[in-house]
């Protein structure tokens, strides 16, 4: 054959020039790179077709047709006479004809019961040929009996066999395998259904039972393609249904539901196809960098308050929501059909509108919602009140979905609906579970349109791990969890405080509304405050209750920002915060809301360190409120109390009071203000044990009481010391949470760094502690002339985002200037900042380090040779040099 003739074309519906391939195979198929190139050309042609809007089913069918013919021709060529004796079958996704560019091509080779060993050599040549072409082939070679044996104990094998279809060879073997694995012999409909439901539940748990994560898995996450496949497997096992369309014929899907399911499946197919092509591999995760590309590919453009990528992901999240709803409906229908086929059980009435059958709630008549629209909320209240109810009957789920349109303006104004919703928030059980169910059924979005606008809305960053609607429900869940005695061990302080909350429903409303203003432009806290006010007025809350809820929504970030970005060892800061809070009631509510919010934003956000910061702020603010807002605590008094506490601890350890006070003579007053008594005692003991006043000391303290590990360094002060220490700690894989920098009168540094491991835990391993101490000692004893180079790289996720440096100065009271820095978080950031400070004569006295997703939001308390940096010119110069340095280093 001609060496230039194409092996593959994309003309018409035939992607394979059969004659050319037959000639090529007959010639020995030695030029296998040529076939690999032809397959890559097919990828390019189909990728262009996808971008031009060609239907995804057409692309998959064409790809399957091509691979089918290629495998069939190769089978006949390499197997020769054995081709008709054995059977070649497609299984898995390939068997379903759902083949994506980099999906595995799963094949089953069936052997006769008494297979001749001579067939193995041609089989090996056949498989070697497939691997050499670059096809990702997954194969199994079994007899019918072996298939049956494996399928009887392995549901995954059973599903693969269920989807098998013959490609070539003896098709009677495939028929025999199907007979051997039929429901009469193994995995009857009931057992198969129960197994697939358990398998799906286990898979969902791996994703925290939500498909709304930062980088969801298009295939495996809840609401992904696997959920549709689960429906298909059960339908095929029970009804022998080959397509989703047949479920409509069996009465399991309405035409509208079928169209919704098919459209959702096609969208996910297109997304997955594009994922494979953009990454060049079998990648099913919607990675951040690919999300950006997909948004452009699918035609989205940036808008005010809504990025293109956020619009695309909202489409994705709403799609998986629809799939999850239909998956739940169909599995419930299967449950009723398979487990209760002769449904003559006597219903147990709950009221005139609802009854129980087989432990599930259902309407007493099909027109209940049309006659009594408020029952669309009542059913969820009944589910809360009757914990024995196992779920909702499928027909009732469908009726709820079909009657959602009844929830309109007049419905929301109906006193019965308002009373029902408020009664739900007062229930002792089931609030979280039923709010989630209301969200799944689309009822919550109809009753609270402001919530509906946020369904599936994501924020394109590393900080917010969930969509806004899921985050709001997680926060309510966290608030509820605090009230449950069995979880009191998680946050005992929260459990203690919540017992004093007189109206917990106000806390839940604040949790539900605290981020409700996102995406509307302006400050989301203020916008959310107005929405919360409207809700409270609409639902008849009193003036004082409304004022509390609105204040909480408008100030829900106040406590976390104060704890993480202010010097809460400073009595003036505590007094300023207390004046904003004003009452113990507000403080209690705000503390609980802050903990629940941080816990529901990102699983890694609320570390022990941050919780203890919040707890410290809570306790000191409570004392300030109880003391009286007109009587602020004096800084000198706080420092004196810390000294006395340290002296008492030292005395109990046998340390002479005079020795300690003599050592402290050269310490600055700020040291005793910023360090608590036990810290002062620990550091003083370490210095006294050194024996001489000017001996470098490096001590580490695994400090679980504060949720972090403390590193204390006493050594000669010099330029760039802060940056050098930060660089070494960063290279060691530690994250700095807090730094308190002091100097003695004779020029020695008293530096304390609070650090965590990358996973948010404090350091407590002896060998790890020794490694940190030795590395610090080695570098600080002989510091590099050109600075310490941090070679650790930013994470794959962080590199996707671009955060231009922002620098602001705060006019805090006291002797130091507070400089806030927002920049892209990356290894070596603090080292770079420290180097710039050193070059321009800036001293760091304290620092608070916060990583907000991909952003570093750090605060430094600094001075220059003259003290506070109040001169606008100096501030502008410092801003310019830091901005330039950070931009250069990030490039």
How would you explain this protein's 3D organization?
This protein is an alpha+beta fold. Helix content is about 55%, strand content about 10%. The chain has 39 helices and 17 strands. The strands form three sheets. Strands 9, 10, 11, 12, 13, 14, 15, 16 and 17 form a nine-stranded antiparallel beta sheet that branches. A four-stranded mixed beta sheet has the order 3-2-1-4, with helices on both faces. Helix 12 crosses helix 14 and helix 28 (about 560-565) crosses helix 31. The longest helix has about 30 residues, at about 310-340.
Which helices and strands occur, and which strands form pairs?
Blueprint: H1 18-26, H2 32-51, H3 56-79, E1 87-90, H4 92-95, E2 105-111, H5 120-132, E3 137-143, H6 144-151, H7 155-162, E4 165-169, H8 171-180, H9 189-206, H10 225-239, H11 245-249, H12 255-279, H13 288-297, H14 308-339, E5 348-349, E6 354-357, E7 360-363, H15 368-371, H16 375-385, E8 391-392, H17 394-402, H18 409-413, H19 415-425, H20 431-441, H21 443-447, H22 449-452, H23 468-483, H24 492-498, H25 504-513, H26 524-538, H27 543-554, H28 558-565, H29 571-581, H30 584-601, H31 608-627, H32 635-652, H33 657-664, H34 669-674, H35 677-689, E9 697-703, E10 708-716, H36 721-731, E11 734-743, E12 748-757, H37 766-781, E13 806-810, E14 817-824, H38 829-839, E15 843-848, E16 851-852, E17 855-863, H39 872-890
Parallel strand pairs: 2-3, 7-8
Antiparallel strand pairs: 1-2, 1-4, 5-6, 6-7, 9-10, 10-12, 11-12, 11-15, 13-14, 14-17, 15-17, 16-17
